[in-house]
Design a protein that fits this description.
mainly beta; Immunoglobulin-like; 2 domains; globular; disordered N terminus
């Protein structure tokens, strides 16, 4: 093999490596029209709906390209404009209607970093990265950021997906109490990639107390609870089993509660973060609520 051929092969290999690295780097981009977020909203009294978020088209503002975000509350029959987003060097910027541009996500943040982000309601939210790990979702490893606002709330950002509260909903509780937004399902190319643990459907609509009469009501208090303290689980039926799952649906423990519908549980052995508390009653019905341990 002559020198020129060897040099040419090296150049081809380097070019291939650069292309592969570029694909890897941009394979987890947040903004894409092939993505869809189904977000569950839980209001009062016991009203549950699903909001569907998608990018639909783009626009040019001051020489920058923004993708337009819309949502539908009626299974894609009607779309409502929510704002425009752009992505640059692993940062996502958001312009709400009649508002200036603010930072929505910074996927460059490291453990201990502080920053200010926004959502669809709050202007500026002071956040701190308390942890970073990797989770396996749908056959793929994705980076996950643990994001806190002081000791008041905890959220998770997942690479390419965003907040587990929804694409523009991270730390909504910083400036509003109700309703509650939770990421129900996330799609790429119309295929589900992420589904909230223990959900059988990606579209839920239930309005009013009468629609829930066949299901146990589960109340957890206090919620959030401080790590090392105890919390109480109360139900309207007799629980036969209580299960505690972590934020990615891995079983942490099963508890046999006896016949009492008010049970006190400890958190000494649980790390701070989100958990799902599931009860199974005497009629084999399951009810799940989210618990935050600070």
């Amino acid at each position: 093999m002559n020198y020129k051929t060897n040099v040419m092969r090296q150049k081809v290999c380097i070019l291939g490596f650069v292309v592969l690295m570029s694909f890897t780097a941009f394979g987890q981009q947040f903004i894409s029209e092939n993505k869809q977020w189904n977000v569950k909203t839980s209001g009062m009294p016991l009203s549950i709906n699903t909001e569907i978020y998608k990018f639909r088209g783009d626009t040019l503002v001051d020489g920058l390209v923004y993708n337009l975000l819309y949502y539908s509350g009626d299974s894609t029959s009607t779309w409502r404009y929510q704002g425009m987003l752009r992505e640059d060097q692993n940062k996502v910027y958001f312009i709400r209607p009649n508002s200036p541009e603010r930072l929505l996500y910074d996927f460059n943040l490291e453990i201990g970093d502080n920053s200010f982000t926004t959502n669809f309601i709050c202007d500026e939210i002071p956040i701190t990265v308390t942890g970073i790990d990797t989770i396996h979702i749908n056959g793929q490893d994705r980076k996950r950021w643990h994001i806190s606002v002081g000791s008041s709330s905890m959220d998770f950002w997942i690479e390419g997906i965003g907040s587990l509260s929804g694409p523009i909903h991270s730390h909504y509780e910083y400036c509003i109490v109700c309703p509650v937004w939770e990421l129900l399902c996330y799609y790429e190319n119309e295929s589900p990639v992420y589904i909230m643990p223990y959900q059988a459907t990606c579209f839920i609509r239930s309005v009013g107390l009468n629609e829930h009469t066949g299901k146990s009501v589960l109340v957890i208090k206090p919620n959030p609870v401080k790590q090392g303290s105890s919390f109480t689980v109360e139900t309207t039926s007799t629980p036969m089993k209580i299960s505690v799952y972590n934020s990615v649906g891995i079983l942490v423990e099963n508890i046999e509660p006896g016949k009492d519908n008010r049970i006190q549980l400890d958190t000494d052995h649980l790390k701070p973060g989100f958990y799902f508390i599931t009860i199974v009653d005497e009629a084999n019905r399951k009810t799940t609520q989210k618990l935050l341990i600070e």
